[in-house]
Amino acid sequence: MNTPDQIKLRLDLPGLPELAPLVEDFASRALGLAEFTGKRREDLLAAFLCGVELVERTLAHQGDAIVPLEIGVTIDAHALEFKILEHGIPLGGDLNEDAGGDITERIRPNTIFDRLWWVQKGHEGSELHLRVKRDHASIEVLEDVRHRLDREEAENAHADTTPSSVTGEYRIRDYQEGDGLEVARRIYEAYGRSYPNPDLYVPDRIDLLNREGRLHSIICESPEGDVVGHYALERPNLGPIGEAGQAVIDHRHRGHGLMKPMRAAVEEAGAQIGLLGIWSQPTARHPISQRMNLKFGSTPTGLCLGTTPASASLRGGVTGESEDGGQPARHSCFLYWDPIIEEPLLCAFVPAELVPILAPLYEARKREVNFETAQDAPVKGHSAISTRFDPARGVAWVALDQITSGAFDGIWAAINAMESSASAATVFVDLPIDDPGCSYLTAQLLSEGLRLAGVGPRFRKVEDERRAEDVLRLQLNPGPVDFAGLVVEGDLGRALADTVIGPQDS
Questions:
Q1: CA 436 – CA 58 distance, rounded (Å)
Q2: Which of 442, 249, 413 is nearest to 352 (CA)?
Q3: Cα separations (Å) of 475 from 114, 177, 405?
Q4: Is 491 exposed, middle or buried (0-12, 13-18, 19+ CB in 10 A)?
Q5: How far is CA 373 from CA 22, 407, 442, in A?
Q6: Cα(188)–Cα(295) distance, integer angstroms
Q7: What is the pTM of this model?
Q8: CATH of 162-273, one of 3.40.50.300, 3.40.630.30, 3.30.420.10, 3.20.20.210
Q9: What is the mean pLDDT of the chain?
Q10: In CA terms, which of 42, 175, 338, 376 is 20 to 30 Å from 442?
């Protein structure tokens, strides 16, 4: 099939029964594009139409006789996936006929599709997914080769190793009003439309964030005065720490060591603002960004799994492999930390089994820590729990201000809400590591299936911002994670990955 790497088609229907032949023709042509033929094509078409009919019938039963539908299909080298989005009463969930949750079970006995599942789209409605693998071994072999080549290309996109032919002096400067358009262009050239932060595609938004101080952009100008590089200090909440990221260099200007002076300017900006330190999230897809952080003096503090959708990649970059033909696997990021001011002594309350990995993490960042491993029951009371969800990434965060006897139930209620209501593919739980109840609660959560992520450096918000403290970060991953494609740089990073991932996923 001489087509792009991925084809996406959509058919919008007002819900009229007389349009059924149009749906059948649309689905049949999509199956043809995916090179399904003969009896196989007929069976898939019949099963898909069955799914559409069951959705319409369930909606009618619930009182929504005519409801608009959106029929979507995605075709790539590995699979074809239909999506049926309905805008009526929410369907899916528990396996009961009234809720429409048993629709997938009524299709599944046909053993036609490899996987069927519901996705709740909030205001948009409920979406039924039907996925089937394409059985073309030759294509899969070619794709494996392409992914290997793409991985190399993705590394080079952040690397400074291939000198361009440009000569002359580059200039590193602070952001100026009006730079937003060129920054957006550099992001698009590197990532296409897959960059998880949509603000970086809107020039006026980049201008505004820099005016507010929520973004401190560093610009690299070419000898001709063109904007060819960007590196930023992100402070969305204007807190006492900043995140270094959004680093990109025009491919025509690589090989001149531009990342280093831009990063130095970011660190200088953080010192001038009076920040406690700078953290970053280098990808675990390739070692270049991790290696850069190590060269800049940052040290790893955590490994956060499934932070990024599989669709987010550098141009020609690595995509997540599917798990058993299901959803594409999500990418992961490391946490790195570079303190600006000397950090005070910390008393950390953690289970004894975590000390062997936490101790070297703190030693690397030169912070003195006293570990307390006794698991004393938390004090009676209720904890204040805050939650946050990023729909662009499908990631949720749950944080506690203090650990009390009601913390365990509160955390699980928050996790369940993030999974069921927000459809979070990854949930992080941040615990105050200096709270005497942290060891007890951590042991409880680990026994219930959560795993260590590491330490969130000075992530805990307190009334006196200058005393912001570390959190012990745990994680839960309802969505598939790309373990096979995870790449680690440095001995400490490897030790952290071995602890976080564990033998079951290694």
A1: 52
A2: 442
A3: 28, 39, 21
A4: exposed
A5: 65, 19, 11
A6: 27
A7: 0.68
A8: 3.40.630.30
A9: 84
A10: 338
